[in-house]
Amino acid sequence: MDLALFYYLLLGFAVLMYVVLDGFDLGLGILYPWFKSEGERDHMMRSISHVWDGNETWLVFGGVVLFAAFPAAYAGILSTMYTPIMLMLIGLIFRGVAFEYRFKSERSKPLWDSAFFLGSSVATFCQGTILGAVVQGVKVGEQGALDWLSPFSVFTGLALMVAYALLACCYLVMKSRGDIMARAAHLGRKLVVTLMVILAIVSLWTLIANTEVRARWLDGINFVYLMPLPILSALFGWLLYRDLDGQPHETRPFWLAVGLFVLGFAGLVVGLFPYLIPHQLTFWQASAPDSSLKFLLPGIFIFLPLIFAYTLWGYRIFSGKVEDFEEGY
Amino acid sequence: MDLDAAMLSRIQFAFTISFHIIFPAITIGLATAIAIWEGMWLKTRNPVYFQLAKFWIKPFAITFGMGVVSGIVLSYEFGTNFSKFSELVGPVLGPLLAYEVLTAFFLEAGFLGIMLFGWQRVGEKLHYFATCVVAFGTWVSSFWIIAANSWMHTPAGHKIVEGRFEVESWMEVIFNPSMPYRLVHMLLAAMLTATFLIGGVSAWYLRKNRDVAFARKGLSMALWAALVLAPLQVIVGDFHGLNVKEHQPIKVAAMEGIWPETETGAPLLLFAIPDMENETNHFEVKVPKVASLILTHSLDGEIQGLKSVPPEDRPYVPLIFFSFRIMVGLGMLMVAAAVWGLWLRRKHPQFESKPFLLLMNLMIPTGVICTLAGWYVAEVGRQPWVVHGLVRTMDIVTPLPAERVLFSLTLFVVTYSTLLLVYLYFMAKLVRKGPPDLARLEQHMLDVNAPSFALEWVKKLQREVVED
């Protein structure tokens, strides 16, 4: 396998890991308005305060893989998406410090609640917008102030907020009991329906707007090979809707939601391959010299499995419901 | 100064990195100190060590959080504001940063949750392991960052093929000529920063006459650390200076304010106001021949001056000149404080000297100030190059409209100023609240079936508290 392809897959993997992991903790922030009491909000934040930092590390990892393996794409995408990236960073800053300060404050607690909600929402919206703008094919290097902002990218921004919120509902079902759990499940059902509609719209919109994606999906036999993706997505959505009803299953909804993310992401990659920036830059064109790609390989093969092992271990230590008596540090 | 997009991007980067560096400078040392205390607690069961670890873990956590959120910004800023730099040197610096994430970031983040929230979920040995891993992670992280940064000062191990950088030897890239000096200098700076933070806060408790046993232990340990680290830093700084003189002589000329093409027996300027336009200094206060002595270890040694290169190849002298003096001055103050502490120990083991406690108290921010000043000397001193001798800073800035950078810069200034105030407020709040009380520690001792001598320790300390 050629090295550039390996790094393209690694990059995709890092992005997927980020979206799933930071997805549920950003989603909890987006859900804050639906959980108003201080106790509920404490509980939600406590359920993620030990993992959010590790989750966000995947964003940094994705960034440095892009920087190290595809410097041209890193330079092109980031400089073109200047404004949404800056807004995303500011959002991430506010929500990140909210974890530390919320539990140590009394009077200013509502302020940190809004920092957490707004920060999470802005960061998510910007991520969705960046994704939408890239898929749509914003001309890299052109510097119109609002090139990244289009009806499509705004829609994908909102879509990602719905998707993260759904993931967070499923996570909450897993991590809570009683009233919070019931409310999360109830909200989750509404969000599944919304997300399925959104997925359909985004898929059709992409097919109409992006000729290359259309060619990839609809030309000849491809259509048949690719049909499992939308069919499985619909199936997962339906199972998720069913699981969140009445006495919800505790862990299955979360994994179904993760499955939806994987399918959606696979659909996207299938449409765009081998482009990093549609119509403009393939991953082969953007790749760094072999000396750089080779140097990083052992690190990836040694450390990624290790990272998996201790991350899993960490999740296991904190597995189960968030207990009410648990103190901080 | 022209406030175009290039200048604004540079200001933004300088601003965001200056803000960021404050927090790792504190957490590297603090994580190490916490690991030491937790280990001492496991070994001796002296509850004061446990109090120290339990107390300092809170300031550590908020500092670490600030470091994380401000660090993410930096990993994206190369691409947003310096896109040509990213394209050009991404193949060299990218893998180093990727290794940092793989070997340090994930490690710290993975074990931080256990260190902070795992007290009731894992046994004390496993908890101690997590603490040690976090401390180790901060060191590994510094290693990669300093390697990448040093390469920009003393590039090695690369070749340029069709206008872009390719690496010939990764060993030479990582262990480039200035890397070992810079790494040791930076790690010592971080240790000293934490040392004077711990010492200063402890001194504050002693001045207020509260939590005395806890504060005495903290101050005493900080002073022993300072006694070793501060003089060591002076020596390492000297070696680092010689290395800079070899590879970046113009930076040294700016640090010392030396204008002639070369100067033998150069004086040490205690004070001066460098004037770049007229290529001279005003109001010089100097000690003859000492600069030559320090830099060449000979009274008549020759030092290359600023005029040996054309004006466009010179950095902005006054900033380097003054930052250098601030760093060295405060470093000497650290040595003096450590020696004073040692002298006090003989007569007053309880550190009862009020002026001394006040000085230690006031010196809390010196580590951070020194680190920032040193950073400016190094980074501003490299200008106008971003990769010394190879790539000019002005050539690699993203051609963005100025108003867009101004917008983001404003956002960062507002956000970071707010955050800094909040951070200081909460740090002060944690310090005022003080360490966890001994009654709770006693309960903890009973919970973990601590050996009987440990309970005796607590009882003895509680009696002391009542007497105080």
From TrEMBL, chain A:
GO biological process: aerobic electron transport chain
Transmembrane segments: 6-35, 81-103, 115-135, 155-174, 186-208, 220-241, 253-275, 295-313
The keyword tRNA processing appears for this protein: no
Keywords associated with the record: Cell membrane, Membrane, Transmembrane, Transmembrane helix
A GO MF term: oxidoreductase activity, acting on diphenols and related substances as donors, oxygen as acceptor
Top-level taxonomic group: Bacteria
Membrane topology: Multi-pass membrane protein
Organism of derivation: Oceanisphaera profunda
Subcellular location: Cell membrane
GO CC, one annotated term: cytochrome complex
Family: Belongs to the cytochrome ubiquinol oxidase subunit 2 family.
Main location: membrane
Record's keyword annotation contains NADP: no
Database matches in InterPro entries: Cyt-d_oxidase_su2 (IPR003317)
Protein name, UniProt field: Cytochrome d ubiquinol oxidase subunit II
Automatic annotation (TrEMBL), chain B:
Sequence intervals crossing the membrane: 12-36, 56-76, 96-119, 126-147, 183-206, 218-236, 316-344, 356-378, 405-426
Gene Ontology molecular functions: electron transfer activity; heme binding; metal ion binding; oxidoreductase activity, acting on diphenols and related substances as donors, oxygen as acceptor
Record membrane topology: Multi-pass membrane protein
Source taxon at top rank: Bacteria
GO biological process, one term: aerobic electron transport chain
Principal localisation: membrane
GO cellular component, one term: cytochrome complex
Localization (cell): Cell inner membrane; Cell membrane
Keywords in alphabetical order: Cell membrane, Electron transport, Heme, Iron, Membrane, Metal-binding, Transmembrane, Transmembrane helix, Transport
Family stated for the protein in its record: Belongs to the cytochrome ubiquinol oxidase subunit 1 family.
Protein name: Cytochrome ubiquinol oxidase subunit I
Organism from which the protein derives: Oceanisphaera profunda
Lineage of the organism: Bacteria, Pseudomonadati, Pseudomonadota, Gammaproteobacteria, Aeromonadales
